[in-house]
Write a structure and sequence with these properties.
17% strand, 2 domains, alpha+beta, elongated, Alpha-Beta Plaits, 434 Repressor (Amino-terminal Domain), 36% helix, 9 helices
Amino acid sequence: MTKLTHLDETGAARMVDVSAKDATEREATAEATIMLSAEAFAAVVDGTAKKGDVLATARIAGIMAAKKTSEMIPLCHPIALSKASVEFEPDAARSAIRIRASAKTTGPTGVEMEALTAASVAALTVYDMIKAVDRAAVIEGVKLVAKSGGKSGDYVAEAAPDEAPKPVYRSTQQPRGRAKPATLMGEVAAPRRSADQQRNANEQREAFRAFMTSRHLRATEWAKQAGVPAAEIYAFLTGKTRAMSGDVAEKLARAARSRVDDMFK
């Protein structure tokens, strides 16, 4: 059994002496997922939550938490971080927000706890921001995704069986009252896209997002005005669908009093 470095010879807790270790570049990434009701998910993605911009607040909270990890986890060393970031991946099919946090430093000890703390606190902040809408929201899947640097070398978490085909988080659990992914009739495996096709799809997605921002369009409200499911917009924005159908695009353009081409360029 590997000796626990946070315990001394008598079994008492201690802070590990890292003064003899080399200062190397170290980085870690962690994630967490919060499962929401459809209403709460829409409020987060649309930015209509009563407390304000949920994701912007959660990002700042996560970064602040990474910087203060040693104040919350008793035996962690204070670390001078050179980087701390928090990103979000909305999953419209599951009404979930996947949170990925990264931390980086050059020093004698790693930043795994900083990344894990950032992801956890960001998830808790999302809950705090939407609990008036959804007190049953569930935080799950808090884990270290990868780390590099230090004597122990690199680590990358193994993908769960249902994650193996692509790096998209999928939970095997389905909390009560949450939307389940639907199986489409006649669904087949999509052909692999070339780098140019992927780039074009990303450019269209960013252009569409910029169009919404410039016109202050909220997905739920815009979809309602156009007479289309809001899930169509969410699926396109989050990359769940490769492209928006022509019929949906036409209806959205009419509702925005614009042209289809203007939404994607």
